[in-house]
Amino acid sequence: MTRDEKLIQRKMSLLELAEVLANVSQACRIGGVSRQHFYDIKTAYEQGGMIALKEKSRRKSNIGNRVHPDVEAACLEMADAHPAYGMTRVAHELRTQGLMVSPGGVRCVWLRHNLETFRKRLQRLEEKAARDGILLTQEQIEVLEELRREREEVIETIETHHPGYLVGQDTFYVGYLKGVGRIYQQTAIDTYSRVGFAKLYTMKMPVAAADLLNDRVLPFFEKHGVPVLRILTDRGGEFCGLLDQHPYELFLGLHQIDHTRTRACSPQTNGITERFHQTMLFEFYMVQFRKKVYRSLEELQADLDVWLVEYNHRRPHQGKRCDGKTPMQTFLGAMTLVQEKLLPCPPDAA
Q1: Among 11, 113, 227, 344, which residue carries the largest CB count within 10 Å?
Q2: Domain boundary pick from 157, 176, 204
Q3: How many domains is the chain built from?
Q4: CATH code of the domain covering residue 291
């Protein structure tokens, strides 16, 4: 979690605390802030949402320290001509043209134009080519082709056609519960309908990951006559190992479920599960831990199960394919689609 995300979470916690206590003054005393600061946070959230809670820099730009406009234009031209070049390479190339600029100066130019990363420079080149119809060099064509392949790979990893086609699973660290210890949550979500499952454990082990599937996920799908075809996880030790020795891998093999792993250092590949974690954090854990003191894992699990019923059956979901329906409505509404997709081929079919 980044520094900005921690600050936003702290401000959101203050707003939620005031709502739970129904007393702004008491919430401000607990949070150690003034009432004016509280209402500034509340106004910003009401007008711009969570993004408006991001800390704004008070630093003023010193225009006199910027590079000459000709140098800045040359840096932008170099970003278009050679998007794969880093700031050091660009500074060196410009010096050979008689333009003196440091690598840090090149980066400052890129930051002002939102070009500080390779991907952003590729997107700028792509937009410029589509808008102006410029002729691309062989180097530019190659880097844009690489960007296109990456996009297709990401789309392929989250491809889902019907309930049960792809279930995302991940481990979520809940926190430390006094008298119990560290609490981990095994989470699973059907990526098509967004029906979610969660179970709490005191360990982060393969047997816990397999237990969630055995206890909650597979019985639900079997009840509705929908097979689970594929599971998407990250590359954590609780999910990955030797196929003939790892408990989780053995469980998937026993039930003939394909195992897909996210790309290395790319948690957004399993973004649906990550988003479910965020919803659960904001709507359940951050509220419940301020309303109640939990002394056992079973007590917390009971309240989590109640919240999951609310999430799956009564809470409208705005995600893709749900469009305001609840996850269970989306799941049940796609039963015909499941039957069509899984319809067996006739014996005499070619």
Answers
A1: 11
A2: 157
A3: 3
A4: 3.30.420.10
Cα–Cα distance measured from residue 105 to residue 49, given in angstroms and rounded to the nearest whole number? 34
Task: Look at residue 346 and tell me if it is in a domain.
Answer: no
Flag whether 58 is in a domain: no
Query: pLDDT value at position 310?
Result: 93
Structural domain of 276: 167-340
SS3 193: coil
Give the predicted TM-score (pTM) of the model. Answer: 0.56
Q: How big is the CA angle at 218 (ends 188 and 170), to the nearest 5 degrees?
A: 20
Claim to verify: residue 136 and residue 177 sit in the same structural domain: no
> Model confidence over 168-199: pLDDT tens digits?
999 999 988 888 899 999 999 999 999 999 99
Both tokens of 303, joined, read: 């309240």
pLDDT at position 34 is: 92
Residues 15 and 120 in one domain: no
Q: Are 198 and 308 in contact (CB under 8 A)?
A: yes
Residues 6+ apart with CB under 8 A from 183: 173, 174, 175, 176, 177, 200, 201, 202, 297, 300
* Beta sheet of 181-190, edge-to-edge order: 196-201, 181-190, 167-177, 230-233, 258-261
41 and 151 in a common domain: no
Neighbouring-strand partners of residue 258: 230
The per-residue pLDDT for range 57-78, each reduced to its tens digit, is 666 666 666 778 888 899 988 8
